[in-house]
Amino acid sequence: GMATEVANLECSDSRLIEAFTRLGVRAQTSCDQLNSWTLDEAKQAAEMEGGGRVLLIPGEDYCVNSNWDSSVTHVDHIE
Hints:
Shape: globular
Number of strands: 2
Largest sheet: 2 strands, parallel
Strand order of the largest sheet: 1-2
Structural class: mainly alpha
Order of helices and strands: HHEHHE
């Protein structure tokens, strides 16, 4: 079934990426590109045609490492 097919997709599979880009989500799958961007470059790459920013990147441990603190549960906890 569909769930099985999706579960077996690699995070960089073109079918998965295209499902998002068809909806206007910007995507970058090059690890070299992602790892060289400044924050401003990433923001620019994420700009969507209708406004706002969303950037799809390959999943955790593919190009990037997660870097989050589970104790941060509210915006007031951010410096």
